[in-house]
From TrEMBL:
InterPro entries: Calcineurin-like_PHP (IPR004843), CNP_phosphodiesterase-III (IPR050884), Metallo-depent_PP-like (IPR029052). Keywords: Hydrolase, Iron, Metal-binding. One of its GO terms (molecular function) is hydrolase activity. This is Metallophosphoesterase. The lineage of its organism: Archaea, Methanobacteriati, Methanobacteriota, Methanomada group, Methanobacteria. Belongs to the cyclic nucleotide phosphodiesterase class-III family. Coiled coil: none annotated. The keyword Metal-binding applies.
Length: 251
């Protein structure tokens, strides 16, 4: 069994950022003892150095192995340089060999723009990493900030990946098992062929749609099934999706 925590859209530095919500979520995640925590971007509001310093301190509270990718807000005001200095590389791989798991992180941000793009060079790199993971019989997770498939209840579609079609084709052809994203502050799961596309809500911002609450996702990967759970700020939990595990490589 593998247990994954997925958080997104901290927005440290925003007037809508709620520190108490973030700290409670981080304590809750640590109490759950995930095998890996994945953070899908917008850890800051404006990409300022001081915001990254604060965000880095919060992320240091996470006790599990962690992969962090940047979002569009993190790419503002030369934030890409701050991200690389204070967080880590903007894209890369996290191997959790004990559990036969490979997380491929992508940088979908563009400087000072809200829309996203993966680009051809990163796309080829991702395709190679998926192929290698398949050869090693690993469970394959893609993590990026921008959603590849439009998310319901988020209004007019403006900020999907500009190369979404190409990336979607590569993800499906590469038999990715999970695609994790954020950006829209609306939790949702799409199933396409054997891939689950999971969007997280915002973990600590009050920029919410309708009656949604701040939240984070957890993912249980069992031998026979996979369950994706929404964990809301009020302590309630709800199953977003439960489906058969067709990838029998998880220990």
């Amino acid at each position: 069994m593998v247990f994954i925590a997925h958080i997104s859209d901290l927005h440290v530095g925003s007037v809508n950022f709620e520190e108490d919500l973030l700290i409670k979520a981080l304590y809750d995640i640590n109490d759950m003892h995930p095998d890996v925590t994945i953070v899908t971007g917008d850890i800051t509001e404006n990409g300022y150095y001081l915001e990254f310093e604060k965000a880095a301190k919060y992320l240091d509270m996470i006790k599990s192995p962690m992969l962090v990718v940047p979002g569009n807000h993190d790419a503002r005001h030369v934030g890409d340089e701050c991200f690389e200095e204070l967080i880590k590389e903007r894209y890369g791989v996290l191997n959790v060999k004990k559990h036969g798991l490979k997380v491929i992180g992508l940088d979908s941000s563009e400087p000072d723009l809200d829309f996203g793009k993966v680009g051809r060079s990163q796309q080829r790199w991702m395709e190679n990493e998926l192929e290698n993971a398949g050869g090693d019989h690993l469970y394959k997770i893609i993590a990026l900030h921008h959603h590849i498939i439009p998310v319901p209840r988020t209004g007019r579609e403006r900020n999907v990946l500009s190369d979404a079609g190409d990336i979607l084709q590569s993800v499906i052809n590469g038999n990715a098992d999970l695609v994790l994203s954020g950006h829209k502050h609306m939790p949702h799961v799409w199933m396409m062929e054997n891939t689950a596309f999971v969007t997280a809500g915002t973990v600590s911002s009050l920029r919410l749609r309708g009656k949604e609450l701040s939240s984070f996702n957890t993912i249980n990967i069992e031998e026979d099934f996979i369950e994706i759970i929404l964990n809301r700020a009020d302590g309630t939990r709800r199953c977003l999706a439960k489906y058969e595990n067709t990838c029998k490589v998880i220990d």
